[in-house]
Amino acid sequence: MKAMNPIASAASTTQPLVEVCRLRRDFGNIQAVKDLSFTIERGQVVGFIGANGAGKTTTMRMMATLDVPTSGTIRIGGYDVLNHPTQVRRLIGWMPDAYGTYDHMTVIEYLDFYARAFGFRREERIRRVNEVMEFANLTELTDRAINKLSKGMAQRLCLGRTLLHDPELLILDEPAAGLDPRARIEFKHLVRLLAAEGKTLFISSHILSELGEMCDTLLFIDGGQVVHHGSSDSLLRERREDASAALLEIRLAGGEEEREKLAQWAPMQPGVSVAEATKQGVRLRLEPDTPEAQAALLRRMIQEGFGVAEYRREERKLEDAFVEILGKAETKTA
Amino acid sequence: MNDFADWLSPILVKELRQGLRTKAFVGIFVLLQILMVISTMIELANDRSNGSQVFFWMVIGVALLLGMPLRGAFSISNEIKENTLELVLLTELSARRVALGKWVALFLQSVLLVCTVLPYLVIRYFMGGVDFIQGVVALAVFLWFSALLTALSVGLSPFAKNAISRGAVGIFAVMAIWFLLLSSLSLGRLPFGSFFSAAHVIILAALTPLFLLGALEIGLGEIAPMGENQSTRKRLILLGNLAVGGVLALVFEENAYVAWILAGCVAMVGIGTLVEPCRPIPSLYRPVWPFRRSSRLWRAAGRILYPGWVSAVPFLLVSAAAVLAISPYRFTDSEQNLRLILAIGMALQPLVICKLMSSHRPTLPVYMAIQIALFVMSIVLAGAFDRSTNLSLAGLLPTTGFFLSLWRSNLLTDSSGINVLAGVALLFTLLGYVSLSIREWVTMAEMERRIAEENPAIQNATDSGEAA
Questions:
Q1: Angle at B46 (CA atoms; ends B45, B52), nearest 5 degrees
Q2: Splitting chain A (334 residues) into consecutive groups of 10 residues, what average pLDDT does each group show?
Q3: Do B92 and A119 touch (CB under 8 A)?
Q4: pLDDT for the residue A2
Q5: CB–CB of B83 and A122 under 8 A?
Q6: CA triplet B402, B407, B408: central angle to 5 degrees?
Q7: Does A287 map to a domain?
Q8: Going by C-beta distance under 8 Å and a sequence separation of 6 or more, which residues neighbour residue A322?
């Protein structure tokens, strides 16, 4: 889509687009967000992860000028959200977890209303609505009543609404929640397109594997504080208790006897230990975690006459890392 | 997409597209037509009986004075419930434009309803011999009342977020029905010419726009993003209304009439300001900043325009004094002075009670709940005091005293002590307010200092103004 937003950032393009500094938000005696600091560079796709009640939505609402911090600052495009909310709103597109659509309206009427509300007039309004409809794959739904849309369609409509004024930063709160697999794939595709256009995206979600694929960096928060900020790869490497070892899933063609034989043979090999016995084989821990070591072990197993039906290095899941982070944070608090 | 012109407010376009399809509007529209046909047939069959006239106007009244205001009462609260309002407020539309757009859309729908009633008036004129002009004037009066009530209900709509506040809106609806019954019965029996003089019509016409704007502003603070000042304009509109009212009272010599209307405006806007939160956010204080350029007196006066319940109390006192200055009594009538003291005490008591009990400012539903509890208690006490010789004690609970002052015109003669006790009660209420608000005033001063530091140009202008 063609960039149209006339509002330029106050900050230079080398500065981070989002700067959150020592942010705190209290609700009575409860500290929803405490001392939260992070930055987001232009063009990045950032996943915002945390358990329920971790302070994700509160933080996003403050970034979207819908809530005010108890203390601390948020600057978006160089503008302070408290002092310059109007300028900030022109730079951001906010999509809450509840999509916020109107009954008794068609898809085109909905987008036309928001295009008018964003100040587009005449041909520009029509052109903008058409561009967004095309981008979000809504053209066939033009005259469909909003209350007749599926959840996936409604989500695309709301993403389209968020894009109408061509914002620099998109803040998406749980955008994939409740979507079926097909709608999720479509959504991932749209995110990739937006990232390719150079948009900065800040996405919260519970579906961590998808965030890992979509995002350049992940921001984990717990108890209102950042517990990890980095790429998913670095997270997986850093958070492993035994980061230097690989876990190998081995399935054997033979029966119980062959499995026991392997369980006895493996510990005698250099750098190999048995992690656990599985139904059809064993899970081995191999050190060092290098392709050469993995290939050498496989070769030795075949030479030894084991009927290896499957030999696979287990990828560590983001979910595991997330649970581990939360566990560590809880231990620290205790 | 081109069915509505670009210059029309987006929210108006949306409301018209959406509103004309809602079950509520279609229901009101169809029901009105059916009942109009029935009432016209009854009237023609009964040959202009008084009862059928009442029924005819009652039907119109239900649609315009109850149906449309009720739709207004839930217009913004439904958007809050559906999570759509925040998205609208992140566009170029302000909370004010949203409220105004919603009111205009509802008003246009009311106009549409009125237009559909006109043919029945023509039939009644040709076949029933009913005065057509009188009917048109009556419709105009209904439309005008409907516009005012709808503006008030749209203004109150942001507060109708939960069961309590919806209950409060229900009470409002009951009051509207009460008003409707009275007005319908009156309209059925009396010629309209005797209701208003030409001067009254001019005064009402002149005060209506500011009343409408003031009514729509009441609940904006509840829906706008927290960093936006929605209070100063509301207060300035009320001050504007007081100024226009003062001029009208002088020109037409209708002081009592104007004073009563303005007292209603002060109550409406004043209560709305008393339940505003005090938030230490610089952007809330900036709109009042032009006063920094003026003299020390103006700077002090400007503080009553700051948002929040703390500045609302002196603002309310100033506004009440202005109404009293416009009224024909002008501080000379002891009975009226007593009522004013009691009315101010009534307005402030729920605020102080709530602050003492929970340290939080009351929301409008809580304020109204406390006020209703005080009303109920006061009616019981007033009944008891009415039979008692020691009436002066009624002054301690301003609401009780106020009721008694309405029931008994010779309250002061019966018990001169009530004036003193009402004064003492008000004094204690004000002392309670002062003790509770000191911290907030200090925060406000801190806020002023921070903004001045951020804006050296303004500070320099202020300093040079003072030096001059």
A1: 110
A2: 50 80 87 90 90 88 90 92 88 88 88 93 90 90 89 89 93 84 84 89 82 84 82 67 74 85 89 84 86 90 90 76 68 58
A3: yes
A4: 46
A5: no
A6: 95
A7: yes
A8: A49, A208, A220
Q: End of a domain among A221, A238, A255?
A: A238
User: What is the reported pTM?
Assistant: 0.80
* Separation between Cα atoms, residue B304 and residue B313, nearest integer Å: 8
Tell me the C-alpha distance between B364 and B350, whole Å: 10
Is the Cβ pair A68, B281 closer than 8 Å?
Answer: yes
Chain A residues with CB under 8 Å of B84 CB are 100-102
B91 to chain A, closest Cα gap in Å: 5
Largest CA distance in chain B: 82
* The residue to which tokens 């007292």 are assigned: B263
pLDDT for res B468? 38
CB contact under 8 A, B82 and A108: no
- CB-based contact, B148 to chain A, within 8 Å: no
pLDDT in the model for residue B410: 63
pLDDT at B152: 87
The DSSP bridge pattern shows strands A18-27 and A71-76 to be antiparallel
pLDDT at B166: 67
Q: Does residue A76 share a domain with residue A52?
A: yes
The reply to whether A105 touches chain B by the CB within 8 Å rule is yes
Residue A100 at interface with chain B, using a CB cutoff of 8 Å: yes
Domain boundaries, chain B: 1-195, 197-332, 339-468
Positions of chain B with pLDDT under 50: 187-194, 461-468
For A170, half-sphere exposure in the C-beta direction (CA atoms, 13 angstrom radius) is 31
Do A186 and A258 have their domain in common? no
Please report the number of interchain residue pairs, chain A to chain B, with beta-carbon separation below 8 angstroms.
85
At B280, list the tokens.
């230490």
pLDDT at residue B189, rounded to an integer: 44
Residue A125 lies in a domain: no
Residue B457 at interface with chain A, using a CB cutoff of 8 Å: no
Q: What is the CATH number of the domain that holds A308?
A: 3.30.70
